[in-house]
Amino acid sequence: MNLQSMMAQAQRMQRDITKKKEEIDKTEFEGNSEWVKVKFKGDRKLVSLKILKEGTIDEDDKEVLEDMINIAISDALAKIDKEINDKLGAYSQGLNGLF
Question: Is residue 56 a part of any domain in this protein?
């Protein structure tokens, strides 16, 4: 394989990676727990946070609510990581951790 061919292949790969990353960045990922629903864009920017628990939240529920927020956020971020791995994982395998 000559240098020109390798450069063309690298440029195609870069365009593919950029396109897929842009697709991921525009996608919304929802994370849920029993009391909380969050939405993030693929670039990890928070779009919304909704408290699903109805009624007042007493002092004992405060700690539970904090846990539920954490669970929902972790759920959404895990979905983003999975999408990145699913769409871009093939490219990172040959780059020895540089991606």
Answer: yes
Distance CA 98, CA 75 (A): 26
Domain count of the chain? 1
Q: Could you tell me the residue range of the domain that residue 66 belongs to?
A: 46-89
Whether 99 contacts 59, CB under 8 Å: no
CA gap 45, 16 in Å, rounded: 23
pLDDT in tens, 51-88: 998 888 888 888 899 999 999 999 999 999 999 999 98
Q: What is the DSSP string of 24-92?
A: HHHSEEEEE-SSEEEEEETTS-EEEEEE---S---HHHHHHHHHHHHHHHHHHHHHHHHHHHHHHHHHH
pLDDT in tens, 9-31: 889 999 999 999 999 999 999 99
